[in-house]
Amino acid sequence: MGKYFGTDGVRARANEGLTLEMSIKIGQYLGWYYGKEKHAKILIGKDTRLSGDMFELGLAAGATSTGAQVYLLGVCPTPAISYLVLKERFDCGIMVSASHNPCRSKELCAQYVGRVVDFIEKENY
Predict the structure, then answer these.
(1) Which of these is catalytic: 82, 97, 99, 105?
(2) Is CB count within 10 Å lower at the N or C end of the chain?
(3) What is the rounded distance in angstroms from the CA atom of residue 84 to the CA atom of residue 74?
(4) Residue 68 and residue 110: Cα distance in Å, rounded?
(5) pLDDT tens digit string along 41-67?
(6) Cα–Cα distance for residue pair 51/48, rounded to 1 Å
């Protein structure tokens, strides 16, 4: 999985390098990681690309399967996730976006995850 993670997220083409199964696993890992001492509180936002719904719901399914409380913000600008994670004290925020990339691209940017991304990448979670 190492080839998918960038400096702050997962980057690949939707349904080619980045799949629904991967988003579920990432959601499970984030729910587990932030839920070690309590139920994790996770916020998910997305852009308007068609694959956003699939990845948003995959992340949510994975995280809730670990007991996390997941809040779907829906379509929003990327900075809204960073702002709300701090303001509302979420454990983690995820933005499903491709921003400046072609329509078939997608990335999952995990806000305030730090070493979680490194661990998933190294362990091939």
Answers:
(1) 99
(2) C
(3) 13
(4) 15
(5) 999 999 888 888 999 999 999 999 999
(6) 8
